[in-house]
Amino acid sequence: MVKVLRRLNVAVDYPAAQTCCGQPAFNTGYWDEARTLAKRYGEVFAGYDAIVSPSGSCTAMVRNFYPELGTPPPPTYEFAEFLVRKLGVTDVGARFPAKVTYHDSCHALRELRLKDEPRQLLRKVKGLELVEMDKAETCCGFGGTFSVKFPMISYAMDEVKCQSIAATSAEYVVSGDSSCLMQIDGYLRRQNLPAKTISLAEVLAST
């Protein structure tokens, strides 16, 4: 992500003091702990014009749920959102000669309303063929602690998602959330399916 932003002449800083946004604690009911992390997030990133995250999940936590913790959300953007909506850029000069399909993560799609932005970016990647799976908007079954509390349901959801991926004959499945990619990759590997997982940032950084 940093490589792409610097290619676009965006000044990037990485505050070493940053920690988790607090979503795991928030989702499991530990709101006091989440509130501490939210306050720290605001302090560490104070003064920046924009905070860019390669995760719809983290971005949604900051933007949608920090207010519930009494913390004003700093200007935080999901990576594809920042490129397309904030910078007005769809062609980042990437080259990735492969057939890919895109998985819509729940947080990016349902909480941030991001659907076409990552696809606009992928369509401008040289050599890339984008094919849509029929279950692109279906949850992969991860959901953080959901996959731990309800492993059989999570596995069944992952199976539906990966069968949809396999039907496209894509070489790669792309997403903007690493948690989704981890979940999908686990099933693909266990079933010896040929598709590989890769983040949107990795694709866009390729030249």
Elements, N to C (H/E): HHHEHEHEHHEHHEHEH
Fraction of residues in helices? Answer: 40-55%
At the fold tier of CATH, the topology name of the largest domain is Rossmann fold
Total number of beta strands: 6
The figure for the number of domains is 2
| Main sheet makeup | 4 strands, parallel
List the total number of helices.
Answer: 11
Global shape: globular
Low-confidence stretches: none
What is the class of the largest domain in the CATH system?
Alpha Beta
Separation, N- and C-terminal Cα atoms? 13 Å
Fold topology:
Blueprint: H1 2-7, H2 23-27, H3 31-44, E1 51-53, H4 56-65, E2 76-78, H5 79-86, E3 95-102, H6 106-111, H7 116-123, E4 126-130, H8 146-149, H9 151-167, E5 172-175, H10 178-190, E6 196-199, H11 200-205
Helix pairs in contact: 5-7, 9-10
What does this structure look like?
The chain contains eleven helices and six strands. It is an alpha/beta fold. It folds into two domains: 2-85, no CATH class; 90-205, 3-Layer(aba) Sandwich (Rossmann fold), CATH 3.40.50.11810. It has a four-stranded parallel β-sheet with strand order 4-3-5-6, sandwiched between helices. A two-stranded parallel sheet has the order 1-2.
Short description:
By secondary structure, the chain is α/β, with parallel strands linked by helices. It has helices at residues 2-7, 23-27, 31-44, 56-65, 79-86, 106-111, 116-123, 146-149, 151-167, 178-190, 200-205; strands spanning 51-53, 76-78, 95-102, 126-130, 172-175, 196-199.
